[in-house]
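Exam revision sheet. Question 4 asks you to relate a sequence to its structure. Input first:
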Amino acid sequence: MTTGLRPALWFLALAVSTPAAPVLHLTPGEIDAVRGRIERLPWARKAYEQQKRAADAWLAAPVPIPEGETGWYHDYFCPDHAVMLRYDPARLEEHVCPVDGKAWRGPRFDAYWRSATHARIFGSLYALALVHRISGERRYAEAAAGILRDYAAFFPTTIPHGRWAGKGRIMAQSLDEAVAILQPLKAYALVAPSGVLTPEDRRAIENEWFKPTAELLEAQTGAIHNIHCWHNAAIGMIGLLLGDRGRIEFAIENPRSGFLAQVEKGVSAEGFWFEGSAGYHFYTLSALIELVVAAERNGIRLVARAPKLKRMFDAPLALADPFLVVHATNDGGAVSLANQAVHYEHAAVWYPEERVYREVLARAYGKERATLTALLYGVEDLPPPGEGVRAASALLPATGFGVLRGELAGGPAFVLMDFGPHGGGHGHPDKLNVIVAGLGRTLAPDLGTSGYGIPLNSAWYRQSVSHNVVVVDGKSQTPAEGNLVAFNGEGALKWVAARCDTAYPGVAWTRTAALLDFGILIVDRLASDRDRRYEWVYHNHGGFELAAPPAGSLAPEPLPLGNGYEHLAEAKAAAVEDCVRGAWHVEGAGTVALTAAADPGTTVIVAEGPGNPATERLPAVLLRRAGAKADFVACLELVRPGGTQSVRAVRAAAEGENIAVVVEAAGGARRFAVEAMGLRELR
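Answer key, structure tokens:
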């Protein structure tokens, strides 16, 4: 273990020793403030009552510690439907799919059931300790002390195990071990002053459970990664709890993997976590917040020392669509800011000068704010809920996202292009992918991922053809990073253009996505030194109808096996003589009308693939061309229910390095030049 603190931390940690009443997240003054909120504020009272119900449920029916090896969360998904199985605390060997009611059985499902049961016990432990500290009722402290004693005796009987991402002992991997230990640590700090734990109890809990957990995690920590951020939170909080200065330094100052290194090296200049995923961004932020809360209450000022921490709250606001959704990119899923309000509770306190964080909270909560984080830490007064959080287009060049915002069909519209770094182990083969939202909802999503433990995750969700990209020769991209070519986020013509020449070695690919006053234009130029098969792929919610060529001209089309194509069902194709026209009819929202230019030799393919969850089917359109070069030009028009499509045809012609585009609309022809530095309308 690393010993000796740097001077900056040494002075602050001089007072850190094993205290009679340790503090990890709530000082005595904060406990008094929480009691005051409960008395004065209905939402705070409701949040407290939720914890009290959990504590009372334990008193009524304690749960025994599950015996046996634990398992991985990502294994607890239905292999057929890619949805999480239903955890039933009373049934160890029966795990039901919520879609069709099928009961799945097997060791890997049973193993995760044990993990979920441990987590359930730890949640009850924390509720018991918190309710005791707020109410003063000793029975809750005694029940919490009993759980702590039981696990102190149980931990030495466990052995390191796990298949992925490090070894755990109570849990199946080091990540889960780190996440799980945080609630017992905080519970221990809350009940320690009550006197229900004897000195012998405390020594056993600290020496037989907490210290070995820190040793287990520290031996597996040494990289910039979301997992290691959770390791740091656990190691640092154990160090703070036990007055172990060496572990505090390891968790915060270690130049390879400590908190400060994670924030500085793992966060882009704009504030997004390097793995390029909304889910992992907030997951990492959760770990960082845990350590900051504990450190700040022990005199270690991390908020001031980590300026990029603030940007981690800002980046999702720049990326959120008008409906507060931060879309899936790479692994994970789409994230609603309404479900991440707990993070902004901390931001509103740490950065009081930024009103936007309180505005996020106001819109996210609406009429219901009853969260534990708000009760324990939140500011009491929020502004009235507004309609939006951020209305401007945004460019995050280091992160690799270009976001266009405007108005279409009488409502807000949103286009995101992903041209950034691959994202490491959580990256997807989806450079230059485009995501579209409008008509009050997500239209063309990035599907993200399902549980990692099922075959469909690698076979579909992590393949290029499940994204809105161009696929070359029926193969998924190699890990790649694109480069920004041009961006304009203001005015009547907004666009983002990027280039990627490494996704398919030997193929130069430039994509321009534009948000115009009548629709969305997606323009692709691809060139190779030999003949290739290019397939422009676009997935959209809704039922799809092909208008031109006529749907009756479609014939069954066998698709290649592998690279995700085997999961495109009902594929039918037709040769195209003119424009491709069709529409997705999105129930309750309107229509997304597609009009695409078609050079001679173009084939249109209509199919459907799994959504996320896989029970949802997303119709897809593929435009196929063969040759050394190919240009694709497609227009998406959003039409409200009862409205009329305006765009009738799209034509394109190569003019040297540029592409000349003509959009035939009800109001007349619109002409554009797609140039190296963006889009220009010709008058």
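Marking note for examiners. The mean pLDDT is 93.
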